[in-house]
Amino acid sequence: MKKQVRKAVIPAAGLGTRFLPATKALAKEMLPIVDKPTIQFIVEEALASGIEDILVVTGKSKRSIEDHFDSNFELEHNLKEKGKTELLKLVDESTGIRLHFIRQSHPRGLGDAVLQAKAFVGNEPFVVLLGDDLMDINGTNHPLTKQLIEDYEATHASTIAVMPVPHEEVSSYGVIAPQGEGVNGLYSVDTFVEKPKPEDAPSDLAIIGRYLLTPEIFAILENQKPGAGNEIQLTDAIDTLNKTQRVFAREFKGNRYDVGDKFGYMKTSIEYGLNHPQTKDDLKNYIIQLGKDLDSKTKKAD
Ligand code: UTP
């Protein structure tokens, strides 16, 4: 019998080495995009997709993530006294969510982080949303997670989100070998390969940070040997799953932002800032001026 998708897992226990030293004591999932921590966007996407319970897999910087979603009586009282109810609303929005936390004692890889959710998930299909990957930050009525849930409702199968990336970048991703052209963006898959060399990559369709998985993935993860980078790779377990039950790939057509990467983080902040009511005008004028200054500097140098 088909089961409803009610649970989400957010792995947020990685070391964030691409963002050192900022991530030495701060989880990269807490890096703010203008005024909102990255992980709050992820939680909001899960909620907008109908998810009821979320498990955050945390590591060394557990406390700031837990504190962010906890109610903060002192702050709320203080804001109320000062009549700053607008700010209070923002604070309130991050409370009252059924969030659970578990610790991954050693960052052995994404596959190992997902394995920590075995007891929480039980025998149900579930979604995984990577804590540093944002999709369409400026709002859409149809989040990618919701799309994956709809795919599951139609196929009863695991579905992994993918999108095309430049060929020279495939070695930073898991990549799929699709079977044929796909139907309305949904592909059957021959193999899932983690971090292939560009010359070995079966396509340029890279796995991005949203997965819908059936619970059979856990038995595979329990026996999964370390793969690329000597980490327990979720992609390798998905490839094994695909040998016993169908696993589909859903092509994402929207904008994706890799917040765990320095330049990706800057782009995300600028784009979100250009849509934020308190910053959009100033930021737009600033960028226009910056463009003019850079232009005249280049002309002088020529
Ligand atoms: P990344 O590979 O982007 O995270 O994993 P990382 O290892 O922290 O990054 P770098 O390369 O060192 O900068 C994708 C997601 O999986 C989580 C990360 O927190 C991130 O949200 N993750 C990764 C875990 O929870 N545990 C792990 O062992 C590895």
Automatic annotation (TrEMBL):
Residues 7-268 form the Nucleotidyl transferase domain. SUPFAM superfamilies: Nucleotide-diphospho-sugar transferases. GO terms for molecular function: UTP:glucose-1-phosphate uridylyltransferase activity. Keywords: Nucleotidyltransferase, Transferase. InterPro entries: GalU_uridylyltTrfase_bac/arc (IPR005771), NTP_transferase_dom (IPR005835), Nucleotide-diphossugar_trans (IPR029044). Pathway: Carbohydrate metabolism; nucleotide-sugar metabolism. Belongs to the UDPGP type 2 family. This is UTP--glucose-1-phosphate uridylyltransferase.
